[in-house]
Amino acid sequence: MNKQIIKNVEKGIFFGLICAVILSFARFDTKCDELRQGVLRLHILANSDSKADQELKLKVRNKILEVTSDCFADSDDLAGAINAARANINKITDAALQTVKQEGYDYTVRAGIEKNYFDNRDYDGFTLPAGVYNSLTIRIGAAEGHNWWCVVFPGVCLPAAKKGSLEKSVSSASAGVAKNASKYQIRFKTAEIYEKIRYRISKK
Question: What is the separation, in whole angstroms, between the first and last Cα of the chain?
Fold first, then answer.
């Protein structure tokens, strides 16, 4: 076998490996996208990063989790969860505002359904990939402080509610990716870099 044939074989093998990697990542990203489209996140932004404002954020969080414990019980999919959040948005806003006032602050509170970008985030027992998600967003005052987040649909972060599971809103294959993130560390990081670049370009 001459050198040219050997080089051609090597190029073919290399090209095949590249194609296999691309296809593998494409399948992984499809599962990640199903996760992004299958959950509703709760996103609470503090007024600032001061100790007092961060403590206030957590008190607002506790109140929101309390008043929303049953809001999503009858939701079968993301659309239903978003509708439930919108139907209860006044109750949610009033509860947060009441907590703020009880703590002696005069901050405004804004609540709504938004699409927000999140980096890879680990939670108790699973990881959500970076990307844009639907979120029930609570903004306290200037909303310039560190945020707190969880997942309200399915109800995996509502301590007062019946625990849900990711399989309620996504396929078992996609849920398996989230629950076994340690097996996909490089892919998760690659997806995070890609999603961050894509998000920044979309904002220009």
Answer: 54
